[in-house]
Amino acid sequence: MNETPGSYFLADSEETERFGAVLAGCCEPGSIVYLLGELGAGKTTLVRGFLHALGHTGAVKSPTYTLVEPYELAERRVYHFDLYRLGDPEELEYLGIRDYFDGHSISLVEWPQQGAGALPPALLTVQLDYHEGGRRVTLTGDTTHANTLRRCVDTHFNSR
């Protein structure tokens, strides 16, 4: 249920996955989405719903030690980053970070604050917070494209 534009209450992990699936249907190639929230807030669960909606059938785990997990899907390439254990943003240069943000793939970045200064700006930021036994998710972004993406999510998430 949407209480304010860009803000949603997710009661459980199934609803978090459903939200991720809706977000996947709204994102276009070139989208960069930052995922913020405490440990266990549902970032990877949201990514799981996102990837399954695009046709991934395997397990989805957070790439905490590898930093990035690529997914070559039928219609899109998606990179799932988890920068929680990143010691220094400069380490991303050794990873070839710029090659991942090619304008043709979708990048989902958990813990983007760990890579501050080395990452391109997000199109959309997804903030997940614990709230009344579930999660509150808030979408922010200040571009026309981000506003279009928020309206798409609002339309499709509330219509189900």
Characterize the main sheet: 8 strands, mixed
Q: Can you tell me the number of structural domains?
A: 1
- Report how far the terminal alpha carbons are from each other: 10 Å
What fold name stands as the CATH topology? Rossmann fold
Architecture overview:
With 160 residues, the protein is of the alpha/beta class. It has a single domain, classed as Rossmann fold (3-Layer(aba) Sandwich), CATH 3.40.50.300. It is built from five helices and eight strands. Strands 1-2-8-7-3-6-5-4 form an eight-stranded mixed sheet. The longest helix is centred in the C-terminal third of the chain and has 15 residues. It is globular and about 40 Å long. The N and C termini lie close together (10 Å).
Which terms would index this structure?
160 residues, alpha/beta, Rossmann fold, 5 helices, 30% helix, globular
Write the layout of secondary structure elements.
Layout: E1 2-4, E2 7-10, H1 13-26, E3 32-36, H2 43-53, E4 68-72, E5 77-82, H3 91-94, H4 97-100, E6 106-110, E7 124-131, E8 134-140, H5 144-158
Helix pairs in contact: 1-2, 1-5
